Amino acid sequence: MSAGLIVLVLSMLLGIQPVTTDLYLPALPALAEGFEAPMSQTQLTLSALLLAFGTSQLIWGPLSDRFGRRPILLWGLAAYTLASIGGTLAPSMALLIVWRVVQGAAMGAVVMCARAIVRDLYQPTEGARIMSKGLSGLGVLACVCAPLGGLLSTLFGWRMALMALAVFGACTLALITLRFEETLQQKNLHALRPAMLLRTWVHIFGNPTFLAFSALTAASYGGLFTFLASSSFVFIKVLGLSKTHYGLVMFSMSFCYLTGTFICRRLLPRFGVRKSVAIAACLSLAGGTLMGVLAWAGVQNVWSIMLPHYFFMLGHGVHQPCGQSGSVGPFPKSAGAASAMNGFLMMVVAFGMGGWLGTHMDGTVRPLTNGVWFWSVLIAATAWTVVRKYGEPEHAAPAKP
After folding, report:
1. What count of other Cβ atoms lies within 10 Å of the Cβ of residue 30?
2. CA–CA gap between residue 308 and residue 120 (Å, rounded)
3. pLDDT for position 39
4. pLDDT for the residue numbered 393
5. How many helices, marked H, and strands, marked E, lie in the chain?
């Protein structure tokens, strides 16, 4: 496969996550009204999806180490497309949540394989650069998703926004079927044996490099998820934006993330992974702190949230490629399992934050601003301590066979 094809494949595989979450966000208040469901139940369409997304990776990871990336991708994308159709046609909120759980489990196979593919083909430092290119593609898709979702839900109703997920899944399935070649050179025939699986999990979770970079990705994603899960209610219900204007707000946020991935590729050759992450943490902390302080000072408008959040998203564009590639770097023989564990930890954070938001949304901006501020502090603490100490290649010893 050419380098361009690999970046395209990574962009589509990684981009399935913002497509699944961001595209339907403008329709979330209308979805709640259509089913006459409370906010806590509506939040489950997002948090339950992400819990299934995270836990399923613990199964998909060893399966991909045993059978290869290609068959897992084909099964995952087929299941994702079918679940998207089921969610579009769901007659009740309960059934929609069920289909979203299936969708999340299938999405876990797709994103997990994308991270593992990077480790199959590249060493950790180069992997961070390639991952940033794939995440730039994700950023382009994220830029399109929210405005498109707002337009579709305004013109055709919220079900059409969900139907767009099925179209994306089918297109990605066609790309993998026709163009993707297996990247796992040597399958681990013992990957699914219980004793071997347990040793692999223990070895991964005991590696300080994995723990440092996983803490970074989890904290960074926690801040992003806080914004995603609460922003449609804050901007549409509290601040009075239309769905279309909300879509433009999300576009600007995604554009900043896309810019952050370009910044990442400029920082890495000059400063390396550890210093790049430390520099980006300054942006994260500045954005989260400014957002929180303005909210507590009583400043409550679109720009008092978005301008600080742009700084946070610039940092996010550095933390994710460095963190995701860094967490699987020590494990060339079990990249699927390491990618799965990293993804699982991020989604545990997201599910917990979703539950908290479901019970703390009070008609003000503070649940959003306080949440982003909290995660920005954790990002900085992680980047300036454990990543600085354990983020070097010498800590990334190969996994035991």
Report:
1. 17
2. 37
3. 67
4. 52
5. 14, 0
Residue 49 has a pLDDT of 87
**What are the domain boundaries of the chain?**
3-180+192-395
Are 167 and 152 in contact by the 8 Å Cβ rule? The answer is no
Burial letters 77-102, b for 16+ CB under 10 A, else e: bebbbbbbbbbbebeebeebbbbbbb
CATH assignment of 3-180+192-395, among 1.10.260.40, 3.40.50.300, 1.20.1250.20, 3.40.640.10: 1.20.1250.20
**Burial class for 108, CB neighbours closer than 10 Å (0-12, 13-18, 19+):** buried
10-residue stretch averages of pLDDT, the chain, 401 residues long: 87 90 76 74 79 86 89 95 92 90 93 87 78 83 80 81 91 94 83 81 90 94 89 84 80 87 88 92 96 91 92 94 86 80 86 79 85 95 94 50 32
The 8 Å CB, 24+ separation contacts for 391-396 are: 391/209, 391/212, 391/213, 391/273, 391/274, 391/277, 391/326, 392/274, 393/124, 393/125, 393/329, 395/207, 395/208, 395/209, 395/330, 396/124, 396/207, 396/209, 396/329, 396/330
**Shortest CA distance to 379 belongs to which of 260, 263, 215?**
215
